[in-house]
Batch of 2 targets.
Target 1
Amino acid sequence: MKLQDLLLIRHELLLTLTALILIVAEIFIDDKSKKKIVPLALFLMIVVTAAGILFPVNGTAFGGMYQTDALRSAMKTILDIATVIIILQSYGWVSKKVNQNKTSEFYILMISTLVGMNFMISSGDFLMLYLGLELATIPIAAMAAFDRHKSNSAEAGIKLILSSALSSAVLLYGLSLIYGTTGSIYFEEVRAAFRIEPLPILGLVFFVTGMGFKISLVPFHLWTADVYEGSPIAVTSFLSVVSKGAAVFIFTFVLYTVFAPVSAFWSQVLVVLSVTTMTVGNLFALRQENMKRFLAFSSIAQAGFILLGILGQGEQGFGSVIFFLLVYVFTNLAAFSVVAAISDKTGKENMADYNGLYKTNPNLSLIMMLALFSLAGIPPVAGFFGKLFLFSAAASNGYYWLLFVAVMNATISLYYYLRPVRAMFIEKNDNPIPTFKSDIYMRIGIAVSVAGIFLTGFISAIYEYYLSISNLF
Amino acid sequence: MNILNLVVIIPLLTVMGIVMAKNMKAVRWVSATGMFLQLLTAVFLMFSYLAIRKSGVTDEMVMMSDHLWFKTLNIHYTIGVDGISVAMILLTGIVVFAGIFASWEVEYLQKEFFISLILLATGVFGFFISIDLFTMFLYYEIAVIPMYLLIGIWGSGPKEYSAMKLTLMLMGGSALLIVAMFGIYYTTVLPDGSHSFNLLQLAQGAMSSPAQRFFFPFAFLGFGVLGALFPFHTWSPDGHASAPTAVSMLHAGVLMKLGGYGIFRVAMYLMPQAAHEQAWIFIILTSTSVIYGAFGAIWQKDLKYINAYSSVSHCGLVIFGLLMMNQTAMDGAILQMISHGLMTALFFALIGMIYSRTHTRMIHEMGGLMKVVPFLGVVYMIAGFASLGLPGLSGFVAEMTIFIGAFQHGDLFYRIATIMAISAIVVTAVYILRVVGILLLGPIKNEHYLHLKDATWYERISTLTLLIAVAGIGFFPNWLYQVVYDSLDPIVLKLSTVL
């Protein structure tokens, strides 16, 4: 191992260092005021994010196991930003009394997960991919079970770890088949040695299945709703944007590089997965009453739209997917922040509780509406652009019927995205959620998300930048 | 700066002004001032357009400006106008201005009401100045979505149901447009081999016949939903009946015209061959619209439903005229858009005003209103006459032109369709005269009505603005004709070259 290798993985090293600093810092904070760890974690994460943006690196380390370039750095930055917003959003929750003795652990676990994801994103071979994936998964299960006094949080934890274990096993089996038939685990070599024969194709199918669990594509989505509902909101947000974003990235990346020669095979699979994911996600979302469950199904449906972008192939496909992930981070986190803010103050998480919210908390209602519009893809907010670019990518490849199914699904989704809007603005409520003011962290977090929702779409440079760095194929 | 930008900037500034307004009075006056300025801009725009044309400029679009937005996809923010868009902007300006005064009495969440209303108008204005398909689509959706809140919050009757139905159907229509938009974008090959969203460039490019056949229905139906084309019109009666007055005015008066406008500007202009091939299907549908809407109106008892069905019928005529694909009929269709826009807005304004006095919209519960509210009664009658096509008012000019154009087609199919459409005029006369008879004439049925007050000053402003415009077109049709006439040339030319 050379020193340069360490320099190349400095983003991961910085994150690890952050986690270690938090462990040490915890010793010096007395038990009564554990929430003081939050500003520290926030500060360190901002430093890491800034370092990632300001000093990007390109290169290969550890004999090709680890690779980094502008595209991967961009994805890491998106995840960093998401994590920063989630730290801001989680303050109100971790500073509750029940979480007093485990505040710092939460952030340590979260950052460990992020380290795993970063390694996964930067993987140059399947081994690193798998290692990163596992490192990313196991701490999340602990995070999901964080509200251990609540039985459904414990349930979420165990469900997550079991389904992750299963999906990892499937994935690993697929990888071993690929290794067995191609004789290599390195992306470049697998690509060259991949033959269109039953066994390697079976490996590919298992790979898609394994990743399908992580991205919660239908029919591999069954864990999603329960886990999202049971987990604390900060963890749900983390699962829905960071975890999913990283998995989508590496999934797309591997399909575009390693399996590019057999794109005819996997595109057919993805078409089917996309249609089922959008449709089933949408239909289940229609009748959800719990806001977290509602957003869970919405995020399943969104994954279906992402597949549309992946089908675009080439730089337009990848660029659109990454752009959408960025938009999705801001949008979903804005929605989750509002849910978290209300849940922190009142413990209410059902849609019926939101009735008449505009009367008492107009700002939160407006932000929620914006976020929902962005999820539904209504201009002028960023979700509109994100979704249209995904559609454009699919259309560029001639998938017009798929596009038709997608836009019809987008119309169906509008129904359920308008339901909370109706609750907040139209429904009357004799006993609405009282007017409250969130803590400063939450408000900053929401402000960042809202700014993101407004700006990412209009500033064309962001999309153009992603397109330009996606040009690796 | 291009003066066209003002058309979008003024409403946005007005919205900001409303946000900052301190009390109800301020909100009203800020909105009224903003929309008055907007109306002035629209009038000014019209005169400058005429001046430009007079100076011999023969470009398809004038006052153009162009900003590159997304480079790789070649998305531009391109604006420009021709006579038709100028006329539509003026129409929108008039209707919104009248709409503000018609909603003078809105008190519940007043600020939010005016903000949503003007945002909606911004979308409409933006749509009419867009030349780039992408921005056109963006503005289209901006125009549709505030409708949900406007109907849902300030509406009446089964408002939540209507709001959801209207939003979903219109967004479903716009979903079809997404397919059409990307289809046109990727299948049209420009002379230099690139792709573009720019309408003018697309018109120069070549789109293959199979692609045209595939995407034409998407584009036509996408806009057709908004134009209340049978069988996709069902959002219109429910939506219009539940919407608050100004929203019905704006929606029936202007938003439905986006459908017709899009049909000739996008669907027919860019896919002329498919337009000819598939016209017969849509002629059948739109003739049905015309007849069905008229008969539907006869059976209704609620004033707003009557007018909503009447809108389906009249907007059907717009699409009918466009589908005849000759200069005369298409001119008539444009005139019909404007005439119907003003007329129906006037109707909905009057219905709102009557409702606020009688607290019912059921025609059988009312009677003899002419005696107690003569101003509203007279205006209602004139609007009714305009609607059934009495010479001297706008409806006559438009409908006559459409039918003359339609009769230029010699073959049997067109003849039958035309005769069917014309017969709807008779039905129109039936339902209009019936309503006028029951509502305005005869004895007063309810003692409470004896004490009704006639129109207030703001109601007079609202109705007179529209009335003057309706009569203006009726007496001086040539003036409007001049504005729109040349602008249809490129489209008619394109349609006739593929024959």
Note: Residues 327-358 of chain B form the longest helix (32 residues).
Target 2
Amino acid sequence: MDFATVLQLAGSSLRLATPLLLACLAGLYSERAGIFDIGLEGKMLAAAFAAAAFAAITGSVWIGLLAGIAASSALSLIHGVASITLKGNQLISGVAINFLAAGLTALVGQNWFGLGGQTPQLGPGQRFLAIEWPLADALLPVPVIGPIYRHLISGHNILVYLALLAVPATWWILYRTRFGLRLRAVGENPAAVDTAGISVVRLRYAAVMIAGLLCGIAGAYLSTGMAAGFVREMTAGKGFIALAALIFAKWRPWPALGACLLFGALEAIGIRYQAITIPGLGVVPVQFMQALPYILTVVILAGFVGKAVPPRAGGRPYVKER
Amino acid sequence: MTAPLPRWADLVLIPALNLLLAFLVAGLVVVFIGEDPVEAVRLLLVGSLGSSYGIGFTLYYATTFVFTGLSVAIAYHAGLFNIGSEGQAALGGIGVTLVCLAVPWPYWWLALPFAILGAGAFGAAWAFLPGYLQAKRGSHVVITTIMFNFIASALVVYLLVNVLKAPGMAPETRNFPEGTFLPFMHEILAVFGIRMSRTPMNFTALLALAAAFLTWVLIWRTRLGYEMRAFGHSEPAAVYAGIDPVRITIVAMLISGAMAGMMALNVVMGFQHRLVLDYVGGAGFVGIAVSLMGRSHPFGVVLAAILFGILYQGGAELAFDMPSISRDMIVVIQALVILFTGALENLVRAPVERAFLRRRRKAA
């Protein structure tokens, strides 16, 4: 494997990691506030459809992005009402949201466009295109740095950079702001937050809606950045891989970046090489590569390699004492 | 202050209202698409219950959903939310396939007990690790079962493509020997002189009813079932009463997984007579809706499974007559049922409880 191949793989890993990263950070906000979110997949799917549909209808990728965020946020609101206001089961709500998105996107997609649940192919103006950084081609002859700058740092669309920026932003919000402190506290001990006179309900809604926003961007990236249109079930488990990355990262932003890049790289390798031969071990089937993120997550969850402990109040509705 | 409702309100009124809301919203979706919901319901009912052909298909689907619904329900009684029925059912398919292909079975009734064992053992095996990890290491069973669904799907694809594949293009096994074919319902009824159209409904439908009855016995008439319910109700209280949490968690998951695996009897052994790619097709997830709607009671599960059978069969006919309502509508209804009977349950329960409280105060 030469240097050029490695760079290509790294670039493709980054692009494949982007939706995972956005969805993973979405889950991070929600779960750090004590609201489990297994509906990441559904929110991303709904956003991917809305973004592609509105980009196709209006011709503007930005309106598409807004529509994607709106669709995802609507599902987040349902999740919030179910699990915060009505104190329902957060896991069941997440399951319902996943099916709601899967069913509605296919149904409405067929109804609007009649293409078997797909949206029309998006043209250049209706997509997020790769951005060439200044001097990318001029610096190409510089050894090592030139190709890295040209192929790895430059040449992605704006949402990729946005996702990468979201990591330090999330770290800063979570660990350096009052909102972040309260958010983490409400996921560990909501009663204490309530005693301090801060609204548990408002904080949790804020977290759930931030999750909606980020999943919306993730979905829009899938259908208007990575692909040129929406196809049925296009998230294909990415929401669950993001969930796996979140557990892998033990609910922390920087490790989340690492986990998403790792899972992105696994996918990139799986796409490029259908079967990998490891000397002495034989052929690793492509299905094993696909299952690897899930297997790794189970291993991490089992606590054999460092224990993943979720936020303490996660999954339980907060009931005020009377 | 909790206001205990009368039994009938808890068991009938609230589920009925939840279901009503779910179907009301589904009706709005149909209106949004620009079709007439009343006509849609009529077509759905005619397509699913209007002929022996429709009924046969409806009950064939319902048989599958009884198994996956019971699977989710059994785990639920022990306080475990098993969303891994999909993967456990996929592995059950492998179990049935291995049994049916291993021996040139002469008679179906000879093959059936071994197929039941195969389906159950493989389904249970796939549920073992999530159960064990929950019990011993505290890994949340919901997350591990989600992961195991994906691992199962990759594993089954690998087995079908590389190991069990029959010569030819499609990733499927060779046909089972005819000695393993379960009798179809139209064949059984013909013996009694009753005529029925040819449908995939088969002997497994009777097994599903037996499974529902045995689940009832297990949950409400055995010591193990009592321990499961006690554990699901309050873990500390159950542990204080001397119930072993590790054993209950693992056993509940094993039974749940075995039940999910049994759906392979209906689809693989009873109808397709070979294993095809993704034969489960989301039936494991339908089990979640069925179990929630049936309030985890075997009788409720059977009723809910029939309702979803109606939706599946009627939905297919509906998509034929009203092309703008594709079969995806079933998934939407499934989601709404899960949402309203599961997550948004308090939307109905709280006002109903208040109404009953008011009435009781007036009476007092």
Note: Chain A has a mean pLDDT of 88.
